[in-house]
């Protein structure tokens, strides 16, 4: 109705019929021209209330309850001005067709039954204890305060544009506390592609999201259009709820060691049980072949590290990687070995190994030569170091070694540092006397 509708003794408390208040001046009055909606406080299950074309309906006396249909269009507002007053929906539907449902800061909108749907604004705390379904088609519902959920949130995705939007979204200015279910489906023939992310709840507050949907833990997989995504409660700018195309990070951890059968040559050894960490929360251990993998990784930038053996270093120390769907392979960590032999030349000019020589690395003892003069210093990263043997009765020249070393065709995983010992002159002992002839 437009204009004013008057009938005797009009005093509507519970609406059980259909009423459309069309226009800012539309009104229902009694025979004395008094506002018949001043005590209006409920919509019955058979009731249907529509506000359109700028109609603002204000109620200040009590909580407002509904089990029927409430539709708020365009620039229209249904506002509860009483302090602490609540909009309580026990059934039916509240549909925002661009309008606003508002309470004071101490009030709230409680969806205890039925559904809140459409596009528009809830200028209040929103307690979703039943169902929130933006739309139909892609739409956003703005919540100017906190959003608390124990019911369900249903999202349709028809594209990637967050501003249009091409998919359903809640935009929350306050805190977000989650429980209940998340339901996601595709519309309009949309098929998601690589490296796509959808912000389902844009949290404009500063606090992290509290809780999770009951059917999706942090990082849980969700399949859309045959493609796997993951739910992330710390996405977007750090506290948004997003579903993102997921990637896989694969790599291997290995080391070079001295070949037991030929100690002057390196061999590759795959390292099991090495802890590899992705970001701040994901970690795994390498298998018997040194392999590791992270699956269901949401798109984003991460720091990847591997924990080296005690006293060792990996090359690289860490990796800064970007996951953008698909597989990110060959994210390897390795370390190197310094190999060498300490020897002297005998009378036939043949090399004779010197056993028990201490091998100093940057001035500190690291290992010693074996019975044949061979030594190995494993677990070396990408470094430049000073190496020198120490053995009583011999002098050696210190060498500077860089790992990995540059070969003619490739990078060598080992550095050879052989040392030839020079015998020191034996000290002269006893007394000498001058004899005269």
How is the topology of this model organized?
Blueprint: E1 4-6, E2 14-15, E3 18-22, E4 27-29, E5 42-43, E6 48-52, E7 56-59, E8 64-66, E9 69-73, E10 77-80, E11 86-102, E12 108-123, E13 125-128, E14 131-134, E15 140-143, E16 147-149, E17 152-157, E18 169-172, E19 176-178, E20 181-186, E21 197-203, E22 210-211, E23 221-224, E24 227-235, E25 240-259, E26 262-270, E27 275-278, E28 282-285, E29 291-298, E30 300-306, E31 318-323, E32 326-328, E33 333-345, E34 351-353, E35 358-361, E36 364-368, E37 374-380, E38 384-390, E39 394-395, E40 399-402, E41 405-406, E42 411-412, E43 414-416, E44 419-420, E45 422-423
Parallel strand pairs: 1-4, 2-5, 3-6, 5-8, 6-9, 7-10, 8-11, 9-11, 10-11, 11-12, 12-13, 12-14, 12-15, 13-16, 14-17, 15-18, 16-19, 17-20, 18-21, 19-22, 25-32, 25-33, 33-43, 33-44
Antiparallel strand pairs: 21-25, 23-24, 24-25, 25-26, 25-29, 27-28, 27-30, 30-31, 33-34, 33-37, 35-36, 35-38, 38-40, 39-45, 41-42
Task: Output the keywords.
single chain, 437 residues, mainly beta, Immunoglobulin-like, 31-stranded mixed β-sheet, four-stranded antiparallel β-sheet, rod-shaped, disordered C terminus
Description:
The protein has 437 residues and is mostly beta strands. The chain folds into three domains: 4-245; 248-333, Immunoglobulins (Immunoglobulin-like), CATH 2.60.40; 336-423, Sandwich (Immunoglobulin-like). The chain is built from no helices and 45 strands. The strands form six sheets. The protein has a 31-stranded mixed β-sheet that branches. A four-stranded antiparallel β-sheet has the order 28-27-30-31, with no helix packed on it. A four-stranded antiparallel β-sheet has the order 36-35-38-40, with no helix packed on it.
């Amino acid at each position: 109705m437009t204009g004013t509708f008057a009938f005797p003794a009009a005093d509507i408390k519970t609406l059980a019929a259909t009423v459309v208040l069309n226009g800012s001046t539309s009104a229902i009055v009694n025979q004395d021209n008094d506002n018949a909606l001043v005590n209006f406080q409920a919509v019955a299950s058979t009731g249907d209330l529509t506000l359109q074309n700028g109609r603002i309906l204000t109620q200040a006396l009590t909580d407002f309850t509904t089990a029927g249909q409430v539709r708020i269009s365009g620039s229209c507002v249904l506002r509860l001005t009483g302090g602490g007053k609540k909009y309580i929906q026990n059934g039916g539907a509240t549909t925002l067709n661009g309008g606003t449902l508002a309470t004071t800061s101490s009030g709230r909108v409680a969806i205890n039954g039925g559904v809140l749907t459409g596009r528009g604004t809830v200028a209040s705390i929103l307690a979703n204890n039943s169902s929130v379904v933006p739309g139909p088609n892609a739409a956003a519902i703005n919540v100017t305060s906190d959003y608390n959920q124990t019911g369900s949130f249903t999202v349709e995705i028809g594209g990637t544009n967050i501003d249009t939007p091409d998919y359903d979204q809640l935009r929350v200015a306050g805190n977000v506390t989650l429980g209940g279910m998340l339901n996601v489906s595709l519309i309009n023939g949309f098929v998601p592609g690589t490296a796509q992310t959808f912000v389902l709840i844009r949290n404009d507050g500063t606090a992290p999201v509290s809780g999770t949907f009951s059917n999706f833990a942090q990082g849980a997989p969700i399949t859309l259009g045959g493609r796997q995504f993951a739910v992330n409660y710390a996405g977007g700018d750090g506290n948004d709820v997003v579903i993102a195309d997921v990637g896989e990070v694969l790599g291997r951890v290995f080391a070079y060691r001295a070949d037991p059968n030929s100690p002057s040559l390196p061999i590759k050894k795959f390292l099991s049980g090495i802890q590899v960490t992705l970001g701040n929360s994901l970690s795994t251990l390498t298998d018997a072949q040194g392999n590791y993998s992270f699956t269901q990784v949401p798109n984003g930038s991460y720091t990847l590290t591997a924990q080296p053996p005690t006293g060792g270093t990996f090359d690289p120390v860490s990796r800064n990687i970007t996951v953008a769907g698909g597989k990110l392979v060959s994210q390897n960590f390795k370390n190197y070995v310094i190999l060498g032999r300490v020897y002297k030349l005998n009378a036939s000019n043949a090399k004779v190994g010197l056993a028990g020589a201490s091998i100093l690395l940057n001035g500190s003892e690291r290992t010693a030569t074996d019975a044949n003069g061979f030594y190995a210093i494993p677990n070396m990263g990408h470094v430049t170091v000073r190496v020198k043997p120490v053995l009583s009765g011999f002098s050696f020249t210190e060498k500077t070694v860089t790992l990995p070393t540059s070969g003619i065709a490739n990078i060598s995983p080992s550095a050879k540092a052989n040392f030839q010992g020079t015998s020191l002159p034996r000290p002269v002992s006893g007394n000498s006397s001058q004899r005269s002839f």
